[in-house]
Prior knowledge:
The complex is a heterodimer of chains A (151) and B (614).
Chain A: H1 14-40, H2 43-46, E1 53-54, E2 57-58, H3 60-86, H4 90-112, H5 118-131, H6 134-139, E3 143-145, E4 148-149
Antiparallel strand pairs in A: 1-2, 3-4
Helix pairs in contact in A: 1-3, 1-5, 3-4, 4-5
Chain B: E1 10-11, H1 16-23, E2 26-28, H2 40-46, E3 48-52, E4 58-62, H3 69-72, E5 83-87, H4 94-111, H5 121-124, H6 127-139, H7 148-164, E6 169-177, E7 180-192, H8 194-198, E8 204-218, E9 221-229, E10 240-242, E11 251-252, E12 255-260, E13 267-268, E14 272-279, H9 287-301, E15 313-320, E16 326-327, E17 336-339, H10 345-348, H11 381-384, H12 386-389, H13 398-439, H14 447-489, H15 515-539, H16 544-562, H17 566-613
Parallel strand pairs in B: 2-12, 6-17
Antiparallel strand pairs in B: 1-9, 2-16, 3-4, 3-5, 6-7, 7-8, 8-9, 9-10, 11-12, 12-13, 14-15
Helix pairs in contact in B: 4-7, 13-14, 15-16, 16-17
Amino acid sequence: MQKRKKVWNKKRSPAVTVIAWGIVVLFLIRLYQVFDPLMGNPIFRNGINGRLLEAGRLTPLGNALLSSAVYLILSVAGIVVLIGFLRMQRWSWVVLMAWTGLSLMITLINYFYSRPNYLVMASNTIIALALNQADVQRIFKIRTDQSEPIR
Amino acid sequence: MSPSADRPTIAATATDLDILRRFEPVVCFTQGEQFFPTDVDRYVAEASLWAHYPDGRDELLVKQGELTLEKLVQPRPAAFGTVHYLRFIEPLSLSESAQVLADQGRLRRILKNDFHPGVGRLARGGLLPRVVDALFTLSFLARGRVPAASAAAAEIDYFHMRAHEDKFVYYGRAVRQNGWRVLQYWFFSCYDSWRSGFSGVNDHEADWEMISLYLYEEQGRLIPEWLAYAAHDFHGDELRRRWDDTGQVDFVDGHPVVYSGAGSHASYYRPGEYQAEVTLDLPSWLSWLKTFNQVLDEFWTGPLGQPSINPFRIPFVDYARGDGLRIGAGQAKAWSPQVIDESTPWIGQYRGLWGLFARDPISGENAPAGPMYNRDGSPRGSWYDPLGFAGLDKVPPPSDALRILKKNCSEIKKEQRQLEALIPAKAAELDALGMKWKGLEGHPHLAKEYTRLGKEIGVLAADVRNLRRAHSENAVILQSLTERLERLKHGVQDDPRAHITNLNMPVTTRRMRFDRLAESWAAVSLSVLLFGIVALVLLAPGYMGAGLGIILTLFVVLESILRSAFIQTIGLVTALLALISAVILLIHFWFWIGIGLLLVVAVFLMFQRLRELT
């Protein structure tokens, strides 16, 4: 038998996989949020057949389209971050952490105003804690040494 | 060549004064320093003596102008809890305060003795230390403090003292302990103006600072080996540097150089600016806060892997630039030394404070006691145990090290010889017992004897095992000691910094991304935050929680960008938010989380067991 060739691969840690799955869950939630407002207004069947703005304010149709557009942008951004993350790019860690922080803050504010979204909260919590793991930070070159995160 | 060949030496029979003079330090102050080491005689002549009684009364015992060192040490029986103290600056009226502050400005302009802080203290720390700093500043409203104009009055009085006689004094003490000859240089200043002059932690009348040198005797000569510079309340190994550690210690013609902190007079080895972190001494009824913080910190730094945060430490800058007046050998100003010991009356017999007792419960603003005593009158560790003060109580002088090490080796060798004789005898005894025990098997009437022998064998086997372990451990220790012995015989010294865990170095003046902007922001940020909160309360009280969250986040993000710490900050903030979310989820879904965990454990165990089958 031929001697096995030893090739060192930059391996993903389990935490990275957990985070990637978290992003996928959030992506699916956002995707649902893209289509949900459009289902309420039968846009797929009838097309855009009404005014989007009236007296400088968004109509329900305009509101639905804007929400969908925002969630679509977020979903696409999520995919870009996911790709960067799986390729273990430093920028993706920074973007994901900032995003998770912002999302957690909004979720917490909503929670305290009695509009809880526990699924998003749980996904973000898992992502945040996983991103904070020392080995994940080392993989993404956020931390060079155990005790010294890069500024 | 001996490692000590290039060091200055002096005959061991020289007088204490001569020895002190041979190694006296060169002290370099920072431009802007107002108070230099002076003599206590003139200070006492300018001061009054007071007593503070437990019922809160203060009594003038000796008026200003009438006090001498002889009067200071007169016995004064008093009730428990009485504090005797000197007062260098008498209480000032409002108009007198305004006058001295104006005079102080004029004096500084004439002397051109201005201090420029450079990158401001507040810009060096983040938002959290700034909040703690603000609380600390506000705490002065509740605590006792030295009045604001006192520093100005002291500066003017000291200027007149210098104008009369420009004299720079150290009080030298030479003492023998454990084979070492310890030289202590005590410096007395009329005032510590760290807070008022250099935005530091505290001000107090009178200041005692000290450095120690540790010498050993070899062939009738005294050779310096270690130095220990006192800085704030630190003690132990971290204070100590070896004489040949030239990367850490500067010398001028064989005299060690001390860089003195501006206002604080703390002593440093390297010139520069030190980020001094002062730990708040919380009152005992608040000690639970520290325990709570420790538990949180363990979780924060352990499982969450975050850098430690101690909210009870306030960052301050101690400026020890060494760009001001220099005193010592070969400098513009020379020392006037005075030798002291326990028999010096004002050293041993005056246990009171050397300046104003400001009634500060955490003592920062109260004047210190003399070299021999703590503020509460108890003996000062650095006086009665100068070796322990620098962590040298476990380190023999180099001249004794070889002898002690040889003795250690020979003791271990002796023990090894004893073990080598004992182990075979015990092992043979164990073999014999084992054979006897085996011979009893299959004879039911010998069951009792069999059990007894079994127990005896167990005890003996444990003995043999322990002896063999001791022999093995001794062999390793002996090898290590022998290697060290060989190194010492060949004059190879240990790493001079091996005993130091955290080397205290000046901070590099890291330029901020937007220098001016960062400084201005640091100065106004806390006030802007409070204005924002007030606006929120008045204009949108219904959105208090959300508004506060958004304002704080904006502040933190802006702060982190200015401090080039964006990545670290978002990591920290997100971790905090995740913790809060985790607690919320746990409260709402503890049952399902428990079920989920059980399922995960079950699946994991099943996977493990099934793998064993394949």
